Amino acid sequence: MEEYPDSALRILESVEPQQLKVQADKAYYALLLTQARDKNYIVQTDDSLIRIAIKHYDSAENIPMQAKAYYYKGCIYRDANRCGDAIKEFLTAIPLAQKTENQRLLGLIYNNAGYLYYLQDLLEEADSIYQLAEKLAIQRNDTSLWAEALSFQGKINIKQGIPYYPKAEEKLLKALDMTNTPNYKRLQADIAAALSSLYNSMKLNKKAIHYAKLNISLRNDTAQHYRAFLLLGDAYFKAGLYDSATIYINKSLSSTRYGIKASAYMRLAEIAKAQGDLDRSLTLTEKYTLYLDSLHLSKQSNDILMAEKEVAKQQYTNNLGQQSNKLYILIMVSVLLICIIGIIYAVLRRNQRKAHHIEQKQSLLEKKQQDLQQKYIQLKNELSQKEAEITSLQKDINRQHNNEEKKKKLQQELDALTRERSVLAKEALEHSEVYSKIERIINSYKKYDKSEEQLNDDDWQRFIVETDILWNKAITRLRIQCELEKEEVHLCCLLLTDFPVANLEYIVRQTRNTIYRKEKEILKKAGCPSGTNRLKAFLKNY
């Protein structure tokens, strides 16, 4: 299994499952076959096989096999893109693997769990678990695990921004040097991709292109080629080589992943803008916002956090059960200990009531967030339907060349539909996750003069999309035509909300005077007369 997983798979597939009569054999076969498929990078999304193994090993209380079975069940959910379920199984497997001191399995679990946290932008959690993986790898002298842990710590540093770039470069170059043999081609390709992304951000174009090409040359798995093509196209774009960039970015569009498609259309829109084709740039930007919207809805970070709580609660319940057994024995031994246990029980009950109260508050908050998300999705569906009606009615109007009376009547219907669409779009924005986050930040500053939250790049992109939907793509058009900076675009979006200007400084982390100064700079870029001093009014009429 470890040295020749392809041979292991062939042997296991030659076994006829119906020949296995003993339940222990059926469970072991189910576990081995799942493991062999995973080691051969075969995507598995059906958990029926591994459930046979888990059911048997749970009843037999075979901890080493339980640990492996729960780990591979997590791998199946990982392949099925069920992040919350995968994390639940990995977190269940960790204490079991720790009990058996199976450090190799523990390293695999850390690696996979860390990847899912990273994928859902839970960077602190991902960094913590990759640090555990690194320590374990050093103890075991496991080059593969160590390099992968360093690689992902480097990727996390990239996402943390410019001050962390030197750390990211150091970790990624160390990981690349450690894996400089043919045995680690797949891992080397991932590290090269991360280095290309880093050097892109650092505007070191030649290095970015070099590592993007190295990433492609090391790839055997065609599924990863799309991301590699996008990375090389992005490197060419930053270097100003638009023809080469377009070729590779267009290749990446064959991917089914929302994130790749969104990034590809964004880059193609910027190339079109740089080449002076404004209409094409706006069309591509529409596609970018469409896939960004889909990407946002596919995020599962809340599922992961819910899974963490569920596993913690289950482990807490199990611990209480174990403690109860011990206490029962002690009660039988000494009457004196009954009094002590009574006191302990009273304290536990008090803590339990406190924990229950906190849990109730948390549940209410989660329910509120879920209701908000459901309402948001419902509004988005209604908005899409309304837009389809508007498009159809507009076509009817365009066909009425001679019948002015009917044309006028249809135009009145169109105006009414447009007003309804605006109301829906505003309500959708106010029910969006990012709008709710802005409200939380403002309320926190008002109450405590600080906030633990802030808008990240994904939040801002989402906010731009929602604002564009409400205001007929005003933000995108203005950004392209006036070449606005990122911070200026963010301010424009905020000014188009109903939040008072006095509250905006909490979101953009700038003083009110700086905000007013930026307003004037944007108005100047838009070519407004020098006497114009209210950007909000200008934006609403743009």
Describe this structure in words.
Helix 5 packs antiparallel against helix 6 (103-119), helix 6 (103-119) runs antiparallel to helix 7 and helix 7 (123-140) runs antiparallel to helix 8. The longest helix is centred in the last third of the chain and has 64 residues, at 336-399. It is built from 25 helices and no strands. The model is unreliable at 315-333 (pLDDT under 50). It is mostly helical.
Overall 3D geometry? globular
Q: Residue-averaged pLDDT, rounded? A: 82
Largest sheet: none
Number of helices: 25
Order of helices and strands: HHHHHHHHHHHHHHHHHHHHHHHHH
Radius of gyration: 28 Å
Work out the strand percent: under 5%
Number-wise, the strands total 0
**Parts with pLDDT < 50 across at least 5 consecutive residues:** 315-333
Keyword list:
mainly alpha, single chain, about 550 residues, globular
Strand and helix map with partners:
Layout: H1 5-13, H2 23-39, H3 48-60, H4 63-79, H5 83-100, H6 103-119, H7 123-140, H8 143-160, H9 165-178, H10 185-201, H11 205-217, H12 225-238, H13 242-252, H14 258-274, H15 278-298, H16 301-333, H17 336-399, H18 404-430, H19 433-448, H20 457-470, H21 474-482, H22 486-495, H23 501-508, H24 512-525, H25 535-540
In short:
The protein has 542 residues and is an all-alpha fold.
